[in-house]
Amino acid sequence: MIALLKSIAADFGHLFFPHNCEGCGTDILEHNNLLCSKCLLQLPGTNFFPLQGNPVEKIFYGRLPVIQAGAAYYFTKHSLLQHLLVQLKYKQQRELGYFFGRMMGRMLEASGRFETIDLLIPVPLNRKKEYHRGYNQAQLICEGIATVWNKPLLAHALSRTKFTDTQTHQTRLSRWQNMENVFAINDLSSLQNKHILLIDDVITTGATLEACGAALLKAGNVHVSIGAVAYTI
Questions:
Q1: SS3 of residue 173 by DSSP
Q2: What pLDDT, on a 0 to 100 scale, did the predictor assign at position 18?
Q3: What is the mean pLDDT of residues 154-167?
Q4: The model's pTM
Q5: CB neighbours of 93 closer than 8 A, spacing ≥ 6?
Q6: What is the CA angle 101-212-145, rounded to 5?
């Protein structure tokens, strides 16, 4: 009887407050899920986190001494994943940040390669950009990770010291030049002797993460690993 009443209450609530899949728009999905089962299966997983020498780690060879790195999904244009990340970054769909974070957190924990991580740190946004957007999507992802993987989050360990133009249409060289000396450490003592997992939404050339990682290494006796929602093919 209790189960029946709960089912009726859920159906009644859905009638007046419809809950739709963020991917395809269907209303056939479980309560509190953001994606239906069909869209979940469409997300192109990489299985990079348990794999040493994966393509994300290779991006940083000779550029940054990364301990481990990985990304949860492959990013391609005009894909479901691109649609979801646009909703997260530009359409105020903050819950998608927590969703991707929870997915990543489970992958990181299951991989067995990231047990020594001490801190989660999001790639910071410029203050002006974060003010207009209302949030930093990388921080939301970190918060989602922390809900399923018992690792502390240090949200404001880094700051951007100057505004940078969007890098979407820039070349690899201009991306790298654009990110030189952009990041600064806010509190050295909180980072020293720590293994840090630096988190971002999408890895393309790795220029932003390289600049962040280089700034973190200045804290002294710091180890840096990298995680992202997506890796651009």
A1: helix
A2: 66
A3: 79
A4: 0.86
A5: 22, 84, 87
A6: 15
